[in-house]
Model the fold of this input.
Amino acid sequence: MAKKKPDYDRGRIETIELKRSIVFNGNTIKKAVIEIDHINYGLNSKTRALNTKKRTSFTVKDVEKFIMLLDGEDIIPDDYKGKKSQFSLRINCPIDGKFFDKEFIMIFDTHYDKEEEIHTITLIPGW
Done:
């Protein structure tokens, strides 16, 4: 069966090995899939295309710092779809600079058949 392609382009997606593993919902997470363009540009609510104006300038390493804040957490997912659990939570920015300690909504998911991986979809400014 062919893998379903998203109905819109989320831009550049990076897969990284975390600098150290974390434990999230009882699973040891070693890898992260990061939708870096989706995080920095957001999606147009009508066209679902990436916005042209940047809202943030986070790097993949910056997003990894957000992910590290999940270490030791047990969180109930907002939604389940097949083998995927989707989460959204409010989290303060750990990155020095103009967004330090400002609240973001982090949307991410985990897959039951990829227990060592977390997929960070986006970080939405929460103010």
Notes: Residues 13-125 form one domain.
